[in-house]
Amino acid sequence: MSATRRLYKVLVSHPNVPKAALELLQQRGCETIVCESVPPSRVEILRKLPGVDAILWAHYQSLDGEILDAAGSQLKVVSTMSSGIDYVDMAEFKRRQMPLGHTPGIVRNSVADLAVGLMVSAARHFHAGRQEIEKSLWRTEQINWMMGQEVRGSVVGFLGFGGIGQTIAKRLQGWEAAKMIYHTRTQRENPFGAIHVPFEQLLRESDFLIVACPLTAETREKFSADAFKQMKSNCVFVNVGRGGIVDQPALVDALKCGEIAAAGLDVMTPEPLPADHPLLKLPNCVVIPHLGTQTMQTTTEMGITAAKNILNALEGKPMICPAY
C-alpha cells in the first residue's frame, strides 16, 4: 500500500454509516473523517470538509456547490449512499466534471417488499381497522364490515418499471393479478407480461397503482388533481418513489371524497411529515416514515457500494455505480 494511498481523506457525512463500509475504506488506505451529529449538521460537515479527497454522502440534505467549494480543489469524488439523487445539484456536478456515484439496484428488494406490504395494508384497511379497535368499535357478526380488495383478478399498474418496479412485479407472480401495465418513457422488455400503456390509460385501468420512479422535472406532481379524477374509485395508490411526484393536497382531497379508495405511502412532502398533517387523519391512508431501504442487509450493501465507488475513483478505475 503506497504512502499516497494512506493520505486519502474521506468525509463520511453520517455517524451511522455501516461499519463494514468504513472498514473497507480504512483497509484500503483511507482516513475516514466521520461527522458525529444526528441528524447531520451542515455546520459540522462544512467545518470538516476542507482538504478531503472524497465524500461519502449518507443523508438527503442538499448536495451542491457549497459542499464542493468547502471541500476544495483537491476533491476527487463524491458518492451518495442512496438510489435517488434528486437532492443533488446535478448541473453543478456536471459543470465541474466532478465524479458522482450512487447506489441504485441494491435497494430494489427491500423497497419491493415494502411496496407489497403497503398494497395489502392499504387495500385491506389495516390502519382503519386499528383505529376501530382503539375506539372500541370492533364489530363482530357483520359480514360487510371493513371490506377490502384483493390483488387476485386486479389490474396492477406501475409508473416506473425499472429495477424496483420489476422486482415488485416479480414479488406479485402467483398473486393471480389479471394484468400488469406500466408507463415509462420507453417500452421495457420484461418477463412478467406487463404491457406498456400511455399515462392516461394507466390511470383509467389500474386497481392498484404503484409509483416506483425517480423524482424529475417530468415526474414532479405527475399525480395532480386531474390525474386522481381519472382513476378508478376502487384504486389503491402506493408511492415508494418520492413524495414530490404527487400533488399532496390533491391526494388528500381524492382520499376524502372517494375519488380513490386508499393510499399506502412510504414517501411524502415534507419529510418528516408534521404530526398534525391531514394525511395522518385519514382512515384510508397508510403512512410509514420512508422505511424503504431500512433493512440491515440493504443498508450495509449500500454503504459498501458507496465505499467501492469512492475507492475505484481514487484508484483511477470506473465507479461501480456512476450517477452520470
Can you describe this structure in just a few lines?
By secondary structure, the chain is of the alpha/beta class.
Report what the structure shows.
With 324 residues, the chain is α/β, with parallel strands linked by helices. It has 2 domains: 3-103 and 296-314, NAD(P)-binding Rossmann-like Domain (Rossmann fold, 3-Layer(aba) Sandwich); 108-287, Rossmann fold (3-Layer(aba) Sandwich), CATH 3.40.50.720. The protein is built from 12 helices and 12 strands. The protein has helices at 3-6, 19-27, 42-48, 65-71, 90-96, 108-123, 126-134, 163-171, 199-205, 225-230, 248-257, 296-314; strands spanning 8-12, 30-34, 54-57, 77-80, 100-101, 155-159, 179-183, 195-196, 208-211, 236-239, 262-265, 285-287. α2 (19-27) packs parallel to α12 (296-314) and α3 (42-48) packs parallel to α4. The protein is elongated, with a radius of gyration of 22 Å. Residues 1-5 have low confidence and may be disordered.
List keywords for this structure.
single chain, 324 residues, alpha/beta, Rossmann fold, 2 domains, seven-stranded parallel beta sheet, five-stranded parallel beta sheet, 12 helices
